[in-house]
Amino acid sequence: MSDSDGSSGDDSYDDAYGGGPYGDSPSSAYSLGASTDGSDGSDSGTYRSRPGRRSTPTASPGGTSRSLKDGTAVLVRCATTDVPYATVEVSNPNGREGVFTVRMKFQDDHGRTVSDGSDEVSVPAQDKVTARVHVDHMDRVREIAHCEVDPKATADR
After folding, report:
1. CA-only gyration radius of the chain, Å
2. By the 8 A CB rule, do 153 and 133 touch?
């Protein structure tokens, strides 16, 4: 049997939110996220919502994510006139794929830098890849006697 307000006559389901177990009796203004109105039609300012399950945070594109640790870079082979790029092995210590920037200095036999080079390298999680870092100034390749790679491969994304 119902009372005139549409709620059941059994008070055992009433709670702090009013009406039924969640304040959702048919005539109740306590629906999820609703304000209640006073009996004279004015807003009483009371706000009640159903207790509910909290959302679980999840990763989303465009959201913030954990930062990647920098990788490492090791010189495998220096550039020559026949092969105008250095070969570098880039390692990713992270549990997910990352993109790393590798930086090189190409030097003459006196240790002076004659050209620089850099490249972005995509490396799978917990893996290594071999990459080519091209000489920036091709007209100076004949002068290269030594290559120096920055051992830190900077994590970009």
Report:
1. 33
2. no
* Cα angle, residue 135 at apex, residues 152 and 92 outer, rounded to 5°: 25
Q: Provide the β-strand partners of residue 2.
A: 8
pLDDT tens figures, 93-128: 999 999 999 999 999 999 999 999 999 999 999 999
Tell me 141's DSSP state.
Answer: G
Single pTM value for the model: 0.58
CB atoms within 10 A of CB 84: 17
Residue with tokens 């989303």: 60
Question: Strands (DSSP E) along the chain, which ranges?
Answer: 35-37, 43-47, 71-77, 85-91, 98-107, 113-123, 128-134, 146-149, 152-155
Between the CA of residue 76 and those of 18, 32, 71, 89, 151, what are the distances in Å?
73, 63, 16, 7, 12
